[in-house]
Specification:
Blueprint: E1 2-4, H1 8-17, E2 24-26, H2 31-35, E3 39-40, E4 51-52, E5 54-59, E6 66-72, H3 81-88
Parallel strand pairs: 1-2
Antiparallel strand pairs: 3-4, 5-6
């Protein structure tokens, strides 16, 4: 699943536009990004406007442990998608 701080409506449009085959949930209240410590405390000149850092977590289905974590402070950087595909296959 994906989680975004955007509204459920925006997440639905995003998922449809990118043909995602998994749910994209809304963390509109910023609770999950706090729990996973991926809060970017400001967005450009908007101070104290919390957004999520670009991040990927892969959780083991059996024991619910995090088996992969990738986080960046730079939203322009993309993760290594091939590495992620290898881990989830």
């Amino acid at each position: 699943m994906g989680i975004s701080v955007d509204s459920p409506f925006a997440n639905k449009v995003f998922a449809e536009h990118h043909n995602l085959n998994f749910p994209v949930l809304s963390d509109y209240n910023r609770e999950v990004i706090e729990q996973y410590n991926v809060v970017m405390p400001s967005l450009g000149k908007l101070r104290d406007f919390k957004v999520a850092k670009r991040s990927i977590f892969i959780v083991d289905n059996n024991n619910h442990n995090i088996v992969y974590k990738w986080v960046t402070d730079n939203p322009l950087i993309e993760p290594n998608y091939e590495e992620i595909r290898t881990i989830i296959s």
